[in-house]
Amino acid sequence: xxxxxxxxxxxxxxxxxxxxxxxxxxxxxxxxxxxxxxxxxxxxxxxxxxxxxxxxxxxxxxxxxxxxxxxxxxxxxxxxxxxxxxxxxxxxx
Length: 93
Known about the structure:
The chain is an alpha+beta fold. It has one domain (2-92). The protein contains 2 helices and 6 strands; from the N terminus they run E-E-E-E-E-H-H-E. The strands form 2 sheets. The protein has a 4-stranded antiparallel sheet, with helices on one face. Strands 1-2 form a two-stranded antiparallel ribbon. A hairpin with a 6-residue loop joins strand 4 and strand 5. The protein is globular and about 35 Å long.
């Protein structure tokens, strides 16, 4: 999975190496980014963090549907409605 940032920089993570998917929310909205997808991997020290408003973010749901079983849709729904600092585990291996 390759993520491109507005600055022109990019980051990537191997889908098969993902060990956990979380959503982190903050109380910074609505004027600042307040939801991040967090992908942890067995081959990276730091997780890959994808802001909700990043271009192509809607493809994350396609990825969840096609590559990961037992995704916690309830956790995703709670995260999308959160306005506080919180962490929601969506999937783990």
